[in-house]
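Team,

Forwarding the record for the chain on the shared tracking sheet. I've put the sequence and predicted structure together so nobody has to dig through attachments.
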Amino acid sequence: MAKRLLPGVLALMAGIALHAQTPANIRLHAPLPQNGGSEVACTDQYAGTVTLTNFQGQSNDFNPPNTIYLCFGDQFDIVHNGDADLTGDPQPSTTPGIGYAFYDCPPTVSGPDLSSIVADPCVNQTSPIILGGVPVPQTQGIWVAADQPDGNLTVVNDGTLQEAFNGGTPAPIQFWFAPITIDDFATLGYEQASGGGPAGPCVNANVAAAFSVVYLNAIEASSINVSGCSGSFQVRGGLPEWDGSAYSISIVHTTDPALMGTITNGTPNHGDNVAFSVPAPGTYEVTIADGKSCEAVFTVDMSSCTGVTFALPIMGVQPGDTVCLPLTVSNFTDILSAQFSLSYDPAVVQFLYADNFNPNMPWLSDANFNDTGNGIAFSWNDLSLNGVTLPDGAVAFELCFEAVGMEGEASPVDFTDQPTPPEVTDFNGNVLNFNTQNGVIFISSTPVGLVV
């Protein structure tokens, strides 16, 4: 009796490939019988075992037999161990081979025939899948991937499966794959025996060799906006899209790694709008990473970040006298708030009071200053929310000290980040670059006044 070739049932169909080869539907020439066979594979047909190896990519979670996580673009090889037994092929004149069946959960049915395997409740029966925007219906109840008859195949996360099995809209997805015997590898065909009967009378899926892969979408940043020293972007993809975890984001100046940006609106998750600020103008490299070390890297041009400068002078004072240091500002435009800390040496000078408040800075008074004994914490807000603009070189206020040290001693008056960290914002809420010039008070019996 002439053989009847029943090409690819496994997807048979759309032989979707793990490495995104074009799927193709194939029809059976005879219906599959009702599942009634034993769930024990034919003794002379065995799909064999595999080694998962040669990983390339970003993921830090390639540790078979545990679930494998693939970042977008990652790949690894399935290397068949050469221990398959294909002597149960109904038609020895065709070349049999090994493919890989798609499952939604760990498979349990190893055989003994095709109809039994298709009836495994974990077999993926998504239909249609979307390939290149075209719906491809499943015709025989199972999808398969195949590359070489010996079972070797390269698994690549190029986004094809995320799109195909999610209605054309890419979403992360998990599959289990098990090696499965194919009667006629050239056509992904399942054949009738010479005496007739259903196709695939002796088929084995080695469920003991099944492995699981999670395909993650690429991490992407979009809607990138920059204003002054602040910016924002939307982030999506990667592991957080799959399990709701958080991203890790670094923002580093490309020529001065000591300059780092700050995320200003909490822990970012999939789909969030991320707000950030940088301390100085320049180009910054933004690196977004997830818990599997998938990454996206891009740069932002923050050259529009014009900082505000706060400057104190070097001044001399006679022992026991009082000296007032003017704090001058530059680029003080539409400023809504400012805060910082100053340190001084209490063995040389003692802080007395603030004075000479700029009349264009509303709500500025003694209450904005807190003496800690060896430093001053300052915080001010324009409660009108309109923002304040002062000309370059304008005096915002004066800080008055008594010289308590000896002739020749000096006290730096330095900007510090304790107890109040430096920050200045404009009326748009942008955190601006904070530039400083430290001051010095030195004690001299010769009146010298303002030096710088």
